Amino acid sequence: MDAHHTEHAVVAVTVVGYLRWIPLLPFAAMLFHALFGRVAGRKAVGVVACAAVGASFLLAVRAFLQLGSGGGVLSDVVYRWIDAGGLTADVAMAIDPLSAVMCLVITGVGFLIHVYSTGYMAHDPDYARYFAYLNLFTASMLVLVLGDSLPLMFVGWEGVGLCSYLLIGFWYTDPAKADAGKKAFVVNRVGDAGFIIGMAVLFWGMAAAGHASLRFADINAAAATLPTGVTLAAALLLFVGATGKSAQLPLFVWLPDAMAGPTPVSALIHAATMVTAGVYMVARLSGLYTAAPEALSVVAVVGAVTAFGAASVGLVQNDIKKVLAYSTVSQLGYMFLALGVGAFGAAIFHVMTHAFFKALLFLGAGSVIHGLHEEQDIRRMGALRSRMPVTWATFLVGTIAIAGIPGLAGFFSKDEILAATYDKGAIGLWVMGVATATMTAFYMTRLLVLTFYGEFRGYHHKWEHAHESPVSMTSALCVLALLSIVGGYVGVPAVLGGGNHFGHYLAPVVGHHELHLSHSTELVLMAISIGAAVLGMGTAWFIYGRSPRADEAFAARAAGVHGLLSNAYYVDRTYDRTIVAGTVRSGEALWKRVDVAIIDGAANALAATVRAFGGSWRAWAGGNVQGYALSLFVGVVVVLILMLAGAGG
Amino acid sequence: MVGAEHFLLLSAVLFALGAAGVVIRRNVIVMFMSIELMLNAANLAFVAFAQRLGNIDGQTMVFFVMTVAAAEAAVGLAVFLALFRTRETLNVDEIGLLKG
Question: Beta partners for A74?
Fold first, then answer.
């Protein structure tokens, strides 16, 4: 099979001055909340927060329209940032089809979530602090996707990591939530170390080859000429960074815990935008990764295994947000699978559709939690369809979309990934992908049935007070539901009579992945994935529709398997026992053996020596004036005797 | 005939007695008197040499010493008075306040 080389022809660059305002507006709003949030009042904070992101969205739309579909680049160089040694880096924003899509998703979905948050957080005492973090996050994420070089992307990369930490631990008075924030930060640091080292290796290789630059355009253009060792090492190390940020094996453990944050945060950061940063980074460096096929294979395998593993864990979770969290990990696995088989466009397509339906599902879950006064356990839900009709209807749309039923967004993007995987000849990975699709349909239907159908199984007073959410929240749900329905039609494949406009739009940046399958094969594959989705949904509907407590029977009959799945394959526990305990133990050893024994010991030994030496002279300075006087006289007498003896001699 | 040697010998004896008093006694007033004794022993030596050498510089010096000693006595006695009011003792071993 021939490689899908990215076209790196000279592209038309148009200089425009407004790109910098896309991240600057939310940043300015953050400063407003931080400085004047308390005096300005809730209403002003909410309006400023939404208006800033809304204005960014309009600017992104303007850039999108100005860019057109010709595949040029809009550029905005703000200033020369680094000029050290051979390295120069500008603070420069660039909009090409790839970053245009990301920008629209971030500001568009971000705007809806800001609006939703004004309702969800209405009773929170720290309203201004919340919106300060949320705006700062949006600004950082926009820097991440707009930056035209690795160093600037890294600024945004770290910025979103910081905001993620701040927002997961937003209710920091609860130690469990504060710990979840710390965990996310530390696990992300592991990945970031890989990112930095990868960046350094890449720069070293680029400089050795005579292109001392870290601009994406230069990297992708030069990647094929670099030594394979350099491209492979850089691609793998950068991918380590991506596994941290995008919650892939082995660094996914922070994402399920990240659900400690407010639910809109889970929707925006831990489902729709930040976690896709790793996918975006690999797609952005498609030239580099295409030049390192072994690295791409690693990406594909990690993605498929993560997708499969996380989906199986999602089958037995009982916290409404945990189900969605593992679902997110699993869907991100799909995206990396797509990247790994070279279908960069399909990965970004899934990023976009996933942003729509996963944000919708999270916000729907938030609406349920809000309506039931902080109830998150689906075993104590049920029958909410009658109390929360809008939430139910939109959640149903989201479920169908993620399950991959034809006609909704998730079907087109997921099917494109599976077809590309099959086309690549990776049958094993394809089977895992289809199995994942079945499990996805199963756990989402289970969630839907247990939450909205059957009898209410919680406390009676919660049912009494169960209510539909305010219009600020339900309106966001409706818009996202609409997007989850129509969002897929930009990428209808040729076999269904579409033109895959999305793929062609991105092609100038990431190349186009031409399938070599016959139309009949493609249709068979499509039928299989539809069958997988229907099978998953039908089974779950059958089991949980009849008996909402079916899990208990399963847990009783297969305790081992149930324990394995509900504890996420004991990965967390293994990390706790090996890495965490090892770190604590080696820290203790360093503390007791090195710090106390050697460093403190050396200082104390020095002090003791000085003290002993001083002690021998102590008697001479006892503070007894008469003693001093006696010494003085004796000294004078001795000197006199010596002088007289000298004079006499 | 009483010569300069006798005066100097007396001066040395007085000086030694004064020095011994300063070193041995614990009462600050007695120590102070011993210091006066040492000063006057030095005065005696000055006068003796002045007479022996026929030069009045030594006698002039004695006046300076007496003036300074008077001033010192005034200041010293004021300090002792203040000290006794606060500490109710004049034993040097009990008032080593500046000892580290």
Answer: A14, A95
